[in-house]
Design goal:
Blueprint lengths: L11 H19 L1 H14 L3 H4 L1 H15 L2 H21 L3 H5 L7
Helix pairs in contact: 1-4, 1-5, 2-4
Length: about 110
């Protein structure tokens, strides 16, 4: 049974695991300032980070949650996933491998 590369139907694992993974990665990029602030605070605070970094942790959680709950952001990530899946079905090469530089013969 050959799969149509342009098929838009999503399996449960794609909806519940793969697209949310893309959302997490993109949200962390877009909340990079809050990620950096929280990371710096944790490094500077050592064992007391739980107490000392509550403000930074709250800001990071708020930023990430805003993206996770945004239906437009979900659709953007879904379309990115579908595009990658279509390309994989067409070529048989995962996107991470396609992006790697091919070795050149000398």
């Amino acid at each position: 049974m050959a799969l149509d590369p342009a098929e838009q139907h999503l399996r449960h694992v794609e909806k519940d695991v793969l697209i949310p993974k893309i959302m997490r990665e993109k949200a962390r990029e877009r909340c990079s300032e809050q990620v950096q602030d929280f990371t710096k605070c944790c490094k500077d605070s050592g064992v007391l980070m739980v107490v000392k970094c509550q403000k930074e942790n709250s800001a990071l959680k708020e930023c990430l949650t805003a993206y996770y709950n945004d239906p437009v952001f979900y659709e953007e990530c879904k379309m990115e996933y579908l595009k990658e899946r279509e390309e994989f079905r067409r070529t048989g090469i995962p996107s991470k491998r396609r992006l790697q530089k091919l070795p050149t013969s000398t």
